[in-house]
């Protein structure tokens, strides 16, 4: 159930919030933009990223609770603080697609640090985690931007942004979901949670 929830959660969050909601909020209300955004455009982009990482981190917390790894809302703050500003760092220094790359790497680095105490091989986990989000970013960038240049470039209005971000987020979601399903199956001690449940059941049966 833990791994299934991880896969399902990522396949919903990335396309739903990054692929669909982000362009609606970031571009639907304030329109298209050049490299230099207006203040309203900057604010709406930031809000949409905050929404995305908030629900992403919340989903991760709920997922790890199923494996007996209690996490709290305090784990969400690094995502809310670092990810938007790393996104803008990539955008304003190296421009597209480095905003996407930097955003994914920030998620990978935060997860690498925060989940390190929960895994069997912490040192190995660090590079596995960062590599996973790097691969997700690369998959999304290559497929999404290739599709944009080939198919979506002449679309009008927000439909172009929706198509592009869905083409970025869906491949990225599959990489995060299934790459980490394999990694987490090895790294997370799910049996610890199962043993706790077994002990509780044994205790209640004795009481009964």
UniProtKB/TrEMBL annotation:
The lineage of its organism: Bacteria, Pseudomonadati, Bacteroidota, Chitinophagia, Chitinophagales. Keywords: Membrane, Transmembrane, Transmembrane helix. The chain crosses the membrane at residues 12-30, 42-60, 72-88, 94-113, 125-150, 162-180. This is Uncharacterized protein.
């Amino acid at each position: 159930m833990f791994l299934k929830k991880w896969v399902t959660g990522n396949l919903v969050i990335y396309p739903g919030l990054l692929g669909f909601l982000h362009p609606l909020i970031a571009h639907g209300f304030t329109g298209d933009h050049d490299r230099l955004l207006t203040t309203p455009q900057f604010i709406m982009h930031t809000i949409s990223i905050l929404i995305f990482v908030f629900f992403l981190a919340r989903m991760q917390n709920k997922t790890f609770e199923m494996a007996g790894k209690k996490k709290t809302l305090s784990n969400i703050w690094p995502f809310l603080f670092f990810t938007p500003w790393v996104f803008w760092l990539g955008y304003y220094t190296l421009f597209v697609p480095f905003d996407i790359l930097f955003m994914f790497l920030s998620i990978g680095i935060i997860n690498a640090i925060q989940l390190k105490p929960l895994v069997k091989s912490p040192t190995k986990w660090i590079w596995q985690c960062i590599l996973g989000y790097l691969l997700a970013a690369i998959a999304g960038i290559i497929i999404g931007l290739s599709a944009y240049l080939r198919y979506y470039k002449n679309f009008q209005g927000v439909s172009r942004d929706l198509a592009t971000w869905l083409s970025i987020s869906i491949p990225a979601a599959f990489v995060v979901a299934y790459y980490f399903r394999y990694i987490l199956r090895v790294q997370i001690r799910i049996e610890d949670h199962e043993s706790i449940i077994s002990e509780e059941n044994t205790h209640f049966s004795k009481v009964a």
